[in-house]
Structures are given as structure tokens and as C-alpha cells.
Amino acid sequence: MAKVPVMQAVVDVLKSEGVDVTFGCPGAAILPLYAAMEDSGIKHLIVRHEEGATHMADGWARTNGNVGVAIGTSGPAGTNMITGLYTAIADSIPILCITGQAVSSKLHQEAFQAVDIVDIAKPVTKWAVQVKEAAQAPWIFREAFRIARSGRPGPVLIDLPLDVQKQEIEWEPALDAPLPIPAVEPHLPRVERALDMLLEADRPLILAGGGVILGDAHEQVRELAELLGIPVQITLMGKGSFPEDHELFAGMTGIQTSQRYGNQSFLESDLVLALGARFGDRHTGALDVYRGDRKFIHVDIEPTQIGKVFGPDLGIVSDTRLFLDALLDAARKRGASKDYSAWVARVGVLKQTLTRPDDYDTVPIKAPRVYREINQIFPPETYFVTAIGLYQIWGGQFQSAHLPRHYQVCGQAGPLGWEIPAAIGVKSAEPDAEVVAVVGDYSFQFLVEELAVAAQYDVPFVIIMLNNEYLGLIRQAEGDAFGMKTEVDIHYDEHGTDNVKIMEAYGCSGRRVFEPGDLADTIEWARKEAVATSRPVLVEVMIEREANTARGIRIDAMIEPEPVPNA
């Protein structure tokens, strides 16, 4: 075999693993990798902050299911990536962070920007490793992709000392290929028992979690629901896995991101088939109420997830799609059927009666009205990204999603600032798609510098900002949970920060909206402006400052029964 620069071999691996774009910031300790990428055909977006690179790789990976790649140099570049790694591992997103490092002989001497990034990253990665021998590099990269994709997906980090990057190795790319990913198939007797339990129940629910989307099992969920006539609920991470306009859609249960009819449907159920759901605390609320007298079947690809929050009546370790394929096969072989029509009708009554209004015409604008316009204006094929705060709660309650991977939310870690870089990642994965970032006024400012990346590389998307001029959810927590009166103030003028001027400073554009009647026209203007300018466009919506928290939004709330009409 011919000898080639080791970083050329690494680039060959990246390309063969399906990487066509990377996000990062060059520096002295990572320049050999950048030199190898220069004529590789891999597009590279230079970011303004390494955390932004990780969130871009995250958005890219959530969109196409492949492993997103973020690159940084040594020292603070790696530590800046930790938030992105935490976000990815919390939501089971496969990304690869590549960091440069000081030369091996200087690592024990406190060299400039030398930090043990491997040990720092271990708690927030599936695997963190430093390449110590150049000949190991392509194999370590192959293994990193395998680990990132296997089982419950997640992030990995590879640290590259500068002296290792400069070496040559024997390498022939034509003889290499990605490592196989083992299939996690269900134990068939447990599949049969799951079917028995479904048929024994009178009011079953299918609960589609994020694992349905990650496992590309949304079609099987719909097929099972329609075959047996069982209503389907979703978790926040499963939003989009089942069309919300379907007759069998039964909403979302939770203490914040939920529908009232979803909570009540759940409380009236007697069995839950949970698919790829981790029973997060904002979904379950108080466990004694959540569990009640109902039975649970928990299907997850990661064995240690089963029983982590509570012991199910039946646990099944499996890829969600392979489990559903097996369950559908078993149901058809048996000719399994049961009349759940009364239960479906009951869920339908709840959907018609336990609703929240969204047609407000008052000024200041109420947040639900914004989501009403979003639902009416944007087609189902639109990709949405959103993060943490009251607007995540409102989004879960009011925004409709009909397609998998099209509603993306940093669900567990909830890093402020995620939306702008994530939207860049989504648009990089699907250049022809329409992308919308729904943000809060505070989160907007955390990684606002990444607007420069979108402007530089012609990455257009629409930003819809819900601006209540202060930290709505934090103030709610201060008053409701702790009785505090201290206010965190982020004002600079009568409306807070002039976010339209910020957009203009980055060569982008925006408009501020005060009247609900102006929402639709302004959003349509933004859609056209983004296409015309190939840059992000802001619609800043001034919503009511003292938002009514309403039932189901309090951070210390729990699922509780509500008086509802009978069928």
C-alpha cells in the first residue's frame, strides 16, 4: 500500500461514512486535518463559536439520521463543545467532535492550550478517545461512527495530538468500508406477550417516543394503530412521529408540553405501550399519578433504560422498528382483533372538549395566537427547531407536527441559543427545505453570532421570536416555586433589545409585530425575504409580558384529573 498523510485517511473515512458537510473553527493544533479537507469535496462552514459547531452538527444529524461532525482546535475549543455533547447525549443524537491537541511530548508539561479533553468529555459522550498512534487513526474513526450509530445513538469525541496528525501511514481507501451495525432484534416470546396484553386491555394507548423517530419506525406505528384501532400519544421527542390530524391521535401527556385532552386520555387508559420513550420527569410528573393502576410495556433499544424510572409490567429490548415489525406479523398471523371503538370515541370527545383557545385578538399578542398562525401558514414539510422556555411549552401545547424529524427540540438538556445553529445544520442537511427557528428573546442572544455563518454561506431560514421582554419561565419559577420577588432584567430600551437592529448588523433583516392582525402578513413577508436574500429573516412578535401560566404549565405541576364530560 502507498503511504499517505494520516489525516488524508481520516478524510477518506469521513466521506465514506456519508459526511458531506462539517462545522468548525480552525486553529494551529488542527490544521493538518483542515489541509486534508481542503480539496476533499466536503463542505465546511467556519463557525463563530465551537458550541455553535456542535449544535449545527446536531441539527444536521437530527435531519438525516447520519453522524454530524464538529471540529475544533485544542484547549478551549474542546471545552466549548461540552454543552453540545451534553445536548446530543441527552437526546440520543449521533455526532462526532474532533479536537486538535498539543504535541504528545508536551501534554504532561502544561503546554499552551493543552487540556485533557478526553476525561472532560467522558461523562457526556458514548466514547471519548485520544489517538496516540497514527496507524490507529482510521480504525478509531471507523469505531467512533459505529459507536455513535449503535444502540441508543449518541455523541463521540476524538482528540488528535498535532504530532500524530503530521505522520504518514499505509492506506488504501478502496479496500475499506464502514463497520457493521448489529441489529437489536426482539425476543419473540416477549412480542407475543405484548400482543396478549394489548388484547386484554380495554383502553390501551401507544406512546411514541423519540426512539420511534430515531428508529425510522413511524410508518409501523401508524400501521399498528390502524390495524388494531388503538389511539396514539407522543412524547415531546416523539413529536412528528404520528400525524396530529389523524383520528387516532390522542395528544401529549405531561406537566408542561401537553394537551389537556392528552392528560385526561392518559389518565383514563389502562395500558400503555411505550416505544423508545425514557419517561422523562416533565412527561411523567408525579410517578404515583402517572403509573396509577395502568399496565406498562416498555420497548427500548438500550437495555439499561428499562426500569430506570420505574419497573414496567413487560420490558422488551429491541429496535423499535424491528419490534413493531414482529408485533404486526404476530397480530396478522393470529388474526388479532378487538373492538376499541368506544375508547376511540371517548378520546374523540376529549379532543373536542378539553382544548385551549388560540384565537386571541388582544394586544399585547398572546402566544397561542402565534402558534395558530404558524399552523395555518407553514406546510407540513417545513422543518422547525425550538429550544427551552415558555415557548417550548407553548410549542408542545399548540404547534402541530405531522412528519418525523421535522419538529426538532433540544428536549432534555435545553441549552439556550440552540436554535440558530441548529437551523443552520438542518438547512445544510436539506438545502431545499423551508426551515423555521422558533426562539425566545433571551435564547436568541446566546449564540446570535452564528447569524454571521448563515449570512456568509447563504443559509436562509425564518426566525419567529416570541418576545415577552424578560425571562418568562425563570420569573414564573421565582414567584411560583420560591416566592421570590427579585427580577432578572435584560432591558436596553422600552422593548428590551432591538433585535431587528441585531439582524441588520449581521446583514440580515427583520420586522417587529405588535398587532395580531399583522402576524400572517409579516410571516409571509419573512418567508419571501429569506428566499430572496438567502439569509435569515426575523419576525419579532411582542407578546404579553405577564403571560398567564394556566393549568399544566407550572414547573412544579403534576398530572391531575380534571372534570370532563362523558362520551
From TrEMBL:
GO terms for cellular component: acetolactate synthase complex. It is an enzyme of class 4 (lyase). Residues 6-119 form the Thiamine pyrophosphate enzyme N-terminal TPP-binding domain. It catalyses: 2 pyruvate + H(+) = (2S)-2-acetolactate + CO2. SUPFAM superfamilies: DHS-like NAD/FAD-binding domain, Thiamin diphosphate-binding fold (THDP-binding). Keywords: Ligase, Lyase, Thiamine pyrophosphate. It holds the Pfam family TPP_enzyme_C. It comes from the Bacteria. InterPro entries: DHS-like_NAD/FAD-binding_dom, THDP-binding, Thiamin_PyroP_enz_cen_dom, Thiamin_PyroP_enz_TPP-bd_dom, TPP_enz, TPP_enzyme_TPP-bd. Coiled coil: none annotated. Residues 388-541 form the Thiamine pyrophosphate enzyme TPP-binding domain. One of its GO terms (molecular function) is magnesium ion binding. Residues 191-327 form the Thiamine pyrophosphate enzyme central domain. Its EC number is 4.1.1.47. GO terms for biological process: isoleucine biosynthetic process; L-valine biosynthetic process. Belongs to the TPP enzyme family. NCBIfam families: PRK11269.1. This is Glyoxylate carboligase. It comes from Saccharopolyspora hirsuta. The gene is gcl.
